[in-house]
Each structure stands twice: as C-alpha cells, then as structure tokens.
C-alpha cells in the first residue's frame, strides 16, 4: 500500500494502531492551555510596596499565564526596580517568569522641566525616581544606574536580553486577541510599543491601567496628598495620551477606587502567619497603611466581577503647559472633543472584602 509522504504521523499511527488514534486526539485536547494570557508592566519600587505585591495574584492564580513582565522607570529608577522584581520572583519561587527592562526616562518630561513646573504651580509630593535626596531614604535623582544595597538581597537571575518594548510586541502578536496588558506604572513602555507597532492595540484583548484619577483635588487637602496624586499619568503625560488614544478593544481605568483598600497591620499579620517565603517577605517589607493600588488593578483585570460600580466616558490627558498638565480629563460622549480619545470603563467601587480575602490567601502561599 502506498501511503505517500504527505501522511501525518497521527494518520500513520491510526492505520497501524487504530486503538491509539483516540488517545492521541484526547492528549491534544488535554494539552490545550485555557489560562488567561497576561502581560504586566510596572515600576517595581522595592522591597515590598504595592508594585511588587501586585505580582502575587499573577504568579499564584492557576488560571493565569503570565507571559512576561516589563519594567519602567517611575517610583524608582529602571535598574533598581528590575533588581527588586527579579529578587521577589526568586523568593516567591517563580524565577521562570521573564523580566524585561524598558524605558529609563519618560518620552518628553524631564526633572528640570518638572522642577520648573513645580516652581510655578506648587510641589508634587511624590516624584518617584526624581525624589530629592533625603536623609534616611535611598533617593538618587541624578544617578539612574545606581542600585543601593538591597535589604532582601541581590538577585541571581538576570533580565532577558530583549528590551521590554519589543518583547511585549512579540507577545501580543503571537497571541492575537488573547493578551490582557495590565499597567500599574507610567505608560512609557506601552506608548513606545504603540509607536513602533500600532497594531498592538488592536491585537491585544484589553488594557487595564492603574491611573486616570479624577476629581482628586479635595483629597489632596483633606487626606494624604501623595495618595491623591495621579503619579502614573503625571510622570509621563505624553505616554498616557498615546495609550488612551489608541484603538484598544477595551480600556479599563482603575484610579480613584484604588485607595479604598490598604495594607493594614491585620492584613500583613494574617499573611505573615503562614510562614512561607512570600508571606515572610510581605510581613517584613510591606508598607503599612499604603493603598493596595496595583494589587487592585491586577485583581480587577483578572476578575471583573469584583467591580460593583462603574461608568463609561471618553478619557484623555491634559497636555497643556498649565496647572492641569498630566491630569486625566473625562467627557460624556456628546461633549467630548473627539480628537482620538477612546471610550474607557472607569471603575468606581469594588467588593473590597472579597478582594482583600483573595489577596491574603494568595500571599500566604
């Protein structure tokens, strides 16, 4: 019998061993990976802090396939953030997750420009990597390559060789319509990806960002002004504008709501009591009373059912050189200027009790 060279291995096996055909097909079905595909972009201030703690749901949820992590300068400089992220993943036993280094500077904004802006409109309480030198803190605004001694220890693992922007582009193109991008830092990496490969927006499944706070002026007076400053947009306004005006299938903004849950002493102690390496890390380095900003953004991205109140609006960023530079602007449909701003889903409230309970359970693992 002439079978021909075009016959597949499966076809040959089915003819020679008919009983094996069904198991082969079954094994293929079983091999299908139905986990949610996620890319996480963040500025990993460490050790501890919201930025790094936000990794916990992504590396503990069995239904999540974390394709990679991209690092961007924001709360700290790029190099030290990368080291903190690598070390946390080592401690958590997930050094298999690729970590890629992205943008070291915003697209346009610079420290001298920000200082000139502050001289005219008032100080920005938190400037991240550009925080002025201060006794007892490891701020080094003029030394971007410096990595101060790391209390948690230096990592052994290294970031991948490919830069974060191109690795993100490759990940989205490899899985069209499947990758959710979660951004919890300045949006520089995402903006650069869109400038190099505009199709990234259309080929992604969705983008969820921690930022886009609105009506925060009263909170700057009545509460912690630092916690009422939309740092992720203010640090790189042009990047936020590029991202918000790209044609994503879905944009979710988790801004004001992220101050509704905090790392209380009780939460830290409940986590620490389990004694796992991750739990001990949280117990030692978590910053008490800090909002669970990035953790909440990740939680909403993975489980939109947590959201109890939301609204939709057109959103963009104020790029005029005035007091509102870098702040989010929102309009209802009929009042929007329609200059590229997209419709976004703005989260107003979530089930905080369920969110905190799930985070504690995952952090204890």
Structural overview:
The chain is an alpha/beta fold and 365 residues long. It is 38% helix and 15% strand. The chain has a nine-stranded mixed sheet, sandwiched between helices. Helix 7 (164-174) crosses helix 8, helix 8 packs across helix 12 (237-244) and helix 13 packs parallel to helix 16 (352-363). The longest helix is centred in the N-terminal third of the chain and has 14 residues, at 78-91. It is globular, with a radius of gyration of 22 Å. The termini are far apart.
Mean of residue pLDDT? 91
- The CATH class label is Alpha Beta
SSE sequence, one letter per element? HHEHHEHEHHEHHEHHHEHHHEEEH
Structural class: alpha/beta
State the major sheet: 9 strands, mixed
Q: Which topology does CATH recognise? A: Inosine-uridine Nucleoside N-ribohydrolase, Chain A
Question: How much helical structure, as a percent, in the residues?
Answer: 25-40%
Strand adjacency order, main sheet:
3-2-1-4-5-6-9-7-8
Would you identify the regions where 5 or more consecutive residues have pLDDT less than 50?
1-30
- The outline comes out as globular
Q: Please give the number of β-strands.
A: 9
Q: Rg, please?
A: 22 Å
Strand content: 15-25%
Report, as a whole number of angstroms, the end-to-end distance.
58 Å
If classified by CATH, what would the architecture be? Answer: Alpha-Beta Complex
């Amino acid at each position: 019998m002439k079978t021909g060279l075009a016959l597949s291995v499966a076809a040959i096996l089915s003819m020679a061993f008919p009983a094996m055909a069904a198991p082969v097909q079954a094994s293929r079905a079983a091999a299908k990976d139905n986990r949610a595909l996620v890319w996480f972009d963040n500025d990993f201030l460490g050790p501890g802090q919201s930025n790094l703690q936000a990794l916990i749901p992504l590396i503990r949820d069995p239904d999540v396939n974390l394709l990679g992590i991209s690092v961007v300068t924001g709360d700290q400089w790029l190099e030290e953030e990368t080291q903190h992220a690598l070390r946390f993943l080592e401690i958590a036993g997930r050094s298999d997750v690729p970590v890629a280094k992205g943008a070291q500077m915003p697209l346009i904004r610079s420290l001298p420009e920000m200082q000139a802006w502050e001289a005219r409109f008032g100080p920005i309480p938190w400037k991240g990597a550009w925080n002025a030198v201060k006794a007892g803190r490891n701020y080094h605004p003029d030394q971007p390559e410096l990595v101060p001694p790391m209390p948690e220890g230096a990592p052994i693992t290294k970031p991948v060789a490919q830069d974060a922007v191109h690795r993100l582009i490759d990940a989205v193109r490899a899985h069209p319509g499947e990758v959710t991008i979660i951004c919890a830092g300045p949006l520089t990496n995402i903006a650069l990806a869109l400038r190099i490969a505009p199709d990234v927006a259309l080929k992604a499944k969705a983008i969820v960002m921690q930022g886009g706070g609105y009506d925060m002026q009263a909170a700057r007076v009545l509460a912690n002004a630092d916690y009422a400053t939309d740092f992720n947009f203010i640090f790189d306004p042009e990047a936020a504008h590029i991202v918000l005006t790209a044609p994503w299938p879905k944009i979710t903004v988790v801004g004001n709501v992220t101050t509704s849950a905090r790392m209380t002493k009780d939460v830290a102690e409940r986590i620490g009591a389990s004694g796992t390496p991750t739990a001990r890390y949280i117990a030692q380095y978590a910053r008490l009373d800090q909002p669970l900003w990035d953790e909440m953004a990740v939680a909403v991205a993975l489980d939109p059912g947590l959201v109890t109140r939301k609204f939709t609006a057109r959103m963009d960023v104020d790029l005029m050189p005035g007091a509102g530079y870098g702040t989010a602007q929102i309009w209802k449909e009929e009042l929007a200027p329609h200059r590229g701003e997209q419709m976004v889903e703005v989260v107003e409230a979530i089930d905080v009790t369920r969110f905190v309970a799930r985070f504690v359970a995952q952090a204890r693992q």
